[in-house]
Give the backbone structure.
Amino acid sequence: MTDAAELRRLTQELLVTHPPATTDRLDFLKARFDAGLAWVHFPVGLGGLDVSRSLQAVVDAELEAAGAPDNDPRRIGIGLGMAAPTILRYGTDEQKQRFLRPLWVGEEVWCQLFSEPGAGSDLAALGTRAVREGDHWVVNGQKVWTSSAHLARWAILIARTDPDVPKHAGITYFLCDMTDPGVEVRPLRQITGEAEFNEVFLTDVRIPDSRRLGEVGDGWRVAQTTLNNERVAIGGMRLPREGGMIGPVSKTWRERPELRTHDLHQRLLKLWVEAEVTRLTGERLRQQLVAGQPGPEGAGMKLAFARLNQEISGLEVELRGEEGLLYDDWTMRRPELVDFTGRDAGYRYLRSKGNSIEGGTSEVLLNIVAERVLGLPSEPRTDKDVAWKDLAR
């Protein structure tokens, strides 16, 4: 049985055979993956050792102490947090072998082709079509709000393969090569001035059936694995105390006593406590994940994340007064990652407005918490048994 002591031994063995100071970064990450120290809870041969997820912290601590490079998780977060667990659960052996290693080491960036202009909150109403032609599927449609599409080599894609059945039943899940002919990525400039999001147009894109994930028509069930993991990845990320948005405003409070008022003090204390409670709840959620797949509880974490970010960033702008109205740079750029704490208060305030939309709108997540966590009655649905092609649009 592999325990903490054995994991420490294996990690030290990796550090001896591949010293971080003299080993190429990518070579080190590949060696780490091959040693089963990437995702220790994944199967042997797929970056793991088939042990408890909780033991990952043992490996990470040893590597951090040795100054070993990481895989830049913020840059490849969609691959790590959404594509990988879905491929692991539903992929064929060939798909797992092909995609998981380059995904984890960061050789291949992933994006998510789910939302559409007419199917955001009601994702199951999506209209992008995939029609089978022999061993391929021909895909036509438009996706929107696609983070990292301008950087991505691969995409997780859901498309409608049967319009004659109710909307949830006629969807299939694919792995799409973003370099294929017919894939066009256009920037979406946001209120921050950046274009981290994109819209993606798919015109006669041919996807081999070998890159279908799961059964035909079972895409909605496969997508639930992705969405549940996405909410945990966004709302339940591991943070130190005063990590995230509460950190900069707390630092300003300590360093700028002339800005303080009694009212702002009371609000900051309340938000600090809520941020800490949310952080500790995230730790508990990650411990629950040791026992299985993430469930609807992640929706609650994502809700808290969005609300706190918006309230904390609003408080920070007020605390800074006139300074809070300044903005550092409106230059149009295509960033590789979102850095909430690395820019000014104005950026944090504007960017946090998207937190209640991305990763599932807060309104949809409230329904998930109500129905799947609290067990309240479902909202009436008139479209449950109606074929997608007959729905009003």
Remarks:
- The first strand starts at residue 110 and ends at 113.
